[in-house]
TrEMBL record:
Keywords: Signal. The active site is at 218 (proton donor/acceptor). Residues 1-262 form the Peptidase M14 domain. GO terms for biological process: proteolysis. The lineage of its organism: Eukaryota, Metazoa, Chordata, Craniata, Vertebrata. The gene is LOC112959750. Gene3D superfamilies: Zn peptidases. It comes from the Eukaryota. Pfam families: Peptidase_M14. Residues 1-28 form the signal peptide. This is Cytosolic carboxypeptidase 6-like. Its cofactor is Zn(2+).
Length: 262
């Protein structure tokens, strides 16, 4: 198993891991004819007021299209589908949480209307289409949000009856916590609250097979506290605008790439 970390700029220190089986370091496994596509699906800005969600998503995109060797390996082995703005009408209008018609789109994943929730309906259709394609394995779904009261970056995940599946799902945020100074596993929570039933990670966690991992990634509007300290480090817009993703660490020596840190 190879493991790498994307680091989202000097201050917006939300990092994402993508860990994947890598039987051969360099062939473009996803691009071989007839090969199974391993897909990471990312959505952002379903809540229009959560601007840090867009900064994080932009950092991911910038890194993935870069010439960094890890970005190349990721592109060779995984397919990234990214919907960077699920609620463009709400963003245009300056809404905080709702769409043009006043809906909180992240409560309508179960039955989105093509008329009332067109962006959500379109993305859901695409995901279901991929789910039904035997040559596509949708391995990760990550929905990026921003949080107005919590500090740090953290995640929401799902609870499953299958304890082994639940523990596997906890690995990703645990790895983030170990490798990203601003990510908090202690703030990460797993739930199946009725009020969250219509969210992306809840709905897709129930739809996709048990080898898929579905999360909400939250980043504080304000700041993060590094473990062992008490001072808050602000997530600044200036740093976000730099939009420079960098690799923080590359424990995956299996990738055969030297100089994992930048
Ligand atoms: Zn949100």
């Amino acid at each position: 198993m190879a493991l790498c970390v994307l680091h989202m700029g000097p201050s917006l220190r939300i990092s994402l891991f993508f860990f994947f089986l890598c039987p051969s370091p360099f062939p473009a496994a996803n691009l071989r004819p007839g090969a199974e596509q391993r897909v990471v699906f990312i959505t952002a800005r379903v809540h229009p007021g959560e601007t840090p969600s867009s900064f994080v998503c932009q950092g991911i995109i910038d890194f993935l299209v870069s010439q960094h060797p890890i970005a190349k390996v990721l592109r060779d082995h995984l397919v990234f589908k990214i919907a960077p703005m699920l609620n463009p009408d709400g963003v245009y209008l300056g809404n905080y949480r709702c769409s043009l018609m006043g809906f909180d789109l992240n409560r309508h994943w179960a039955n989105p209307s093509p008329w009332a929730h067109p962006t959500l309906h379109g993305v859901k259709q695409l995901i279901i289409q991929m789910y039904n394609d035997p040559k596509i394995n949708l391995e990760f779904y990550i929905d990026i949000h921003a949080h107005s009261t919590m500090m740090n970056g953290f995640m929401y995940g799902n609870i499953f009856e299958d304890e082994e599946r639940f523990q596997r799902q906890a690995v990703f945020p645990k790895l983030l916590c170990q490798n990203a100074e601003d990510f908090s596993y202690s703030s990460t929570s797993f739930n199946r609250d009725a009020v969250k039933a219509g969210t992306g990670r809840r709905f897709l966690g129930g739809l996709l097979n048990d080898t898929s991992y579905c999360y909400t990634l939250e980043v504080s509007f304000y700041s993060y506290i590094v473990g062992g300290t008490t001072s808050a480090v602000p997530y600044t817009e200036e740093a976000c605008i730099l939009l420079q993703s960098r690799v923080l660490r590359l424990p995956g020596r299996e990738l055969g790439i030297k100089g994992g840190e930048e």
